[in-house]
Amino acid sequence: MTQNTRLNRIIDDAGDRLNRGLRNPWRRLSLQVISLLFGFLLASVVSSFSGQRAEQDMVVAAIMVLLTELASRIIYGRGQQLRGILWAEVLNGLKIGLIYGLFVEAFKLNS
């Protein structure tokens, strides 16, 4: 049980304003696109850093597979429960961007 202090009211009001602002479809779409692009950037960064030290390639690959499978389990394991929830859509966009970025990096290294 929380007390009704001024700080709690300010935090609650800021959260309510953020939720109202993110109900706009264009803002939701832009947040999803940003998460997709951030996942792509993250894939590029991870492949660059793990490629510099060839000792940890298998560990980084296992961690990436674990994170993507965990995100898939969270998003798709609950069926239609998380449909339309913003954080689940952002997490899914991040995962898709990460996987796509790793595929692009693999194609770049192969050619």
Count up the helices. 4
Rg from C-alpha positions? 18 Å
What coarse outline follows from CA principal-axis ratios?
Answer: elongated
- Specify the structural class: mainly alpha
Q: H/E series, N to C?
A: HHHH
Mean pLDDT across every amino acid position? 85
Distance between the termini: 60 Å
Number of domains: 1
Largest sheet: none
Total DSSP E strands: 0
Which residues form runs of ≥5 with pLDDT under 50?
A: none
Classify the beta-strand content into a percent band: under 5%
Proportion in helices: over 70%
List keywords for this structure.
111 residues; mainly alpha; 4 helices; 80% helix; elongated
Explain this structure.
It is built from 4 helices and no strands. 12% of the residues are buried. The model has no long low-confidence stretch (mean pLDDT 85). It is 80% helix and 0% strand. The chain has one domain (31-110). The chain has 111 residues and is mainly α. α3 (57-76) packs antiparallel against α4.
Give the gist of this structure.
The protein contains 4 helices and no strands.
